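In this section we turn from sequence analysis to structure. A common task in structural bioinformatics is to predict how a protein folds when a small molecule is present, because the ligand can shape the pocket around it. The inputs are simple: the amino acid sequence and a SMILES string for the ligand, here 2-acetamido-2-deoxy-beta-D-glucopyranose. Study the lines below before reading on.
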Amino acid sequence: MCGILIWQLILSALALTAEAVNLRPTPASKRNNGPPPPQFVQTQGGSFFVNGSQFQFVGTNAYWLHALNSDQDIDNTLASIAAANITVVRTWGFNDVETIPENGTWFQHISNGTITINNGTNGLQRLDKVMELAQKHGIYILLSLTNNWNPHPLDDPGTAGGTRLVTNDTRPRNTLSNDYGGMDLYVRQLGSSQHHDQFYTNDTIITAFKDYTTAIVSRYKDNPFVIGWELANDPRCGSSLPASPSCETRVVTRWHSDVAQHVNSQDPNHLVASGNQGFVCPDCPKLFQRPPPPPPVAPAPPQPSPAPGTRRRRTPGPLTRAKLLRERKAMWRKARKVQKRSGKPSGGVRIRGRWMASPAIRAEDIDVGSATDGSHGVDSEDILSISQVGFGSFQLFPDQNDYRLNPEDTTLPLFNQTLQIGLDWIRFQGETAALLGKPITLTGFGLVTSGNADAFVPFNSTAPFGSDQGTPPSQQPFGVTDAERDEAYRQWLQAGLAAGLQGMIQYQWGQGNLTAQEGTAVSPTPDESGVTPNQDETGLSPNDGYTSLGTGQGEFLDTMKAGAQEFGPDV
Ligand SMILES: *[C@@H]1O[C@H](CO)[C@@H](O)[C@H](O)[C@H]1NC(C)=O
Ligand SMILES: *[C@@H]1O[C@H](CO)[C@@H](O)[C@H](O)[C@H]1NC(C)=O
Ligand SMILES: *[C@@H]1O[C@H](CO)[C@@H](O)[C@H](O)[C@H]1NC(C)=O
Ligand SMILES: *[C@@H]1O[C@H](CO)[C@@H](O)[C@H](O)[C@H]1NC(C)=O
Ligand SMILES: *[C@@H]1O[C@H](CO)[C@@H](O)[C@H](O)[C@H]1NC(C)=O
Ligand SMILES: *[C@@H]1O[C@H](CO)[C@@H](O)[C@H](O)[C@H]1NC(C)=O
Ligand SMILES: *[C@@H]1O[C@H](CO)[C@@H](O)[C@H](O)[C@H]1NC(C)=O
Ligand SMILES: *[C@@H]1O[C@H](CO)[C@@H](O)[C@H](O)[C@H]1NC(C)=O
Ligand SMILES: *[C@@H]1O[C@H](CO)[C@@H](O)[C@H](O)[C@H]1NC(C)=O
Ligand SMILES: *[C@@H]1O[C@H](CO)[C@@H](O)[C@H](O)[C@H]1NC(C)=O
């Protein structure tokens, strides 16, 4: 057992003491009006607290909640989530449009320099309903304020007419999570150049976004069932609009600091989180001072031998590129030895649902990967060091990103490699957050199953990711089985608990029996003859490749319930 684990034990011992004597915890981040009332979610060290009790949770994502067609639908959805003992829902608190749509919800119209916020019955009053009904079911809401992804083509005729001519995508607006506006929409309408990072640097855009955050956070600042504000889903330098050459980690970090201060000044009651994917960059220049390291701990007891399939814990202390490289090379040597003995060929890695063959690598070729080299323009450690950022966040979508911290053990079956990449990533994030003394949550994790493969649309795309794509063409059937998904979720939940994560939010919830309405995210599905059925046909929640609806839903729910039980409320 290493120092970090002991530190975590000390923290949880402190937490227990605090609870036993009913001390009111002081928030980690400095609020401008002192600590918020105790019923608001706050932090002490690496934990969340509500009313003086520790709050650790399993959650789910349902970005489409405010786009449902009736209050009853929102109520039913939140009721079934609560019945699975899930206590946190992450959802979109934005819905930007360039053209006012014919049907469905919209919150903000940005066009030709003019910005209108819609607080009508098809506007923010939909979000009011989500908030009200969440509270009714005892569910906390993590609300994202914008999205990195909004891949509309520049010559998109808009959404009023429905079909996007360039992509010929006929799905109604708001079906996909990247179809709710976001950073690129602000840039398209307000930027002086068509670079994604204008969002972080252009004063006109920064002011527009701050005004939007003011509208949202001031609306819900007295609601204790907001767990916190997530500044953006997956902020980074690039999107469907490219990054400018000057975008680097400090640009994205500086924006976080500025907007987090603004949000905190409008609403001192709630925590602020980034929403980034957790990429780190040990050797990037920092803007913020890392908090002092945890106090020295007693000498470590003898180390128990690790369970088969688990990896050595990272040695404690600040993360450096040199250390990462040393560990990767050691792993590579170990994997190569095993591989030589087994005589199996070297494999590949699963990215965007596909196994990419990787050329045989030599020790001197090993470098830290894109998760740790700053190439996305994200340094989540520096962001978490911002005093107004109250808790850390990261994501885990092995079908869409490369999270490898270690060279893959190619002797393992492909599913097991994916599983292991997730376990390593979770452990790594827990250790990094422990060094900074703030809670960390996994705000989205998911695997695409073969049953969902046809519906899978990656975040930087508007079209399904066809099963015959990928270079080289797929050797494997696309997607994992339902049982593999459940096994991965089960092991990741366990790993998160062991790594000290304070919350884990699965992506994404699936709900049936919803009201369907033409031209909305829940539209009637055409039957086999292509004829659109009646308006009163019940609808399914949108699916971008990760829905929990389907034949395996029962087992999925059992997995989540078991996870929720373990994370569950303090007793
Ligand atoms: C926290 O305490 C307040 C005041 O006693 C109470 O109204 C509220 O329901 C409590 N919150 C939770 C989540 O227990
Ligand atoms: C889990 O949910 C069930 C059904 O809503 C409820 O009866 C039970 O008390 C919950 N368990 C916990 C630990 O919250
Ligand atoms: C955009 O705004 C400018 C200045 O207010 C105006 O002259 C122009 O006609 C507008 N263009 C469109 C397409 O509305
Ligand atoms: C909508 O905004 C207007 C103008 O700020 C305000 O007068 C009105 O009360 C708001 N209505 C709702 C329901 O928020
Ligand atoms: C979309 O459909 C139109 C009309 O059928 C066709 O002219 C156009 O080439 C299509 N665009 C793409 C990108 O497939
Ligand atoms: C931001 O965009 C506006 C509108 O295009 C432009 O006038 C302004 O110069 C830009 N500011 C910066 C700092 O790029
Ligand atoms: C997103 O997609 C566009 C268009 O295919 C591409 O040019 C861009 O590099 C992609 N951005 C990222 C961050 O993957
Ligand atoms: C792969 O993972 C599954 C599920 O955890 C496990 O049963 C199996 O033994 C693993 N295979 C190997 C070779 O480790
Ligand atoms: C819809 O409700 C019916 C009746 O309660 C239930 O049998 C069915 O499984 C539900 N469908 C979905 C997709 O949830
Ligand atoms: C809007 O809804 C109406 C009535 O349900 C429908 O006829 C129309 O096609 C929808 N518009 C779009 C753009 O989908």
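Residues 1-31, 158-163, 300-314, 344-361 have pLDDT under 50 and may be disordered. As an exercise, try to locate the residues that line the 2-acetamido-2-deoxy-beta-D-glucopyranose site and compare them with your own expectations.
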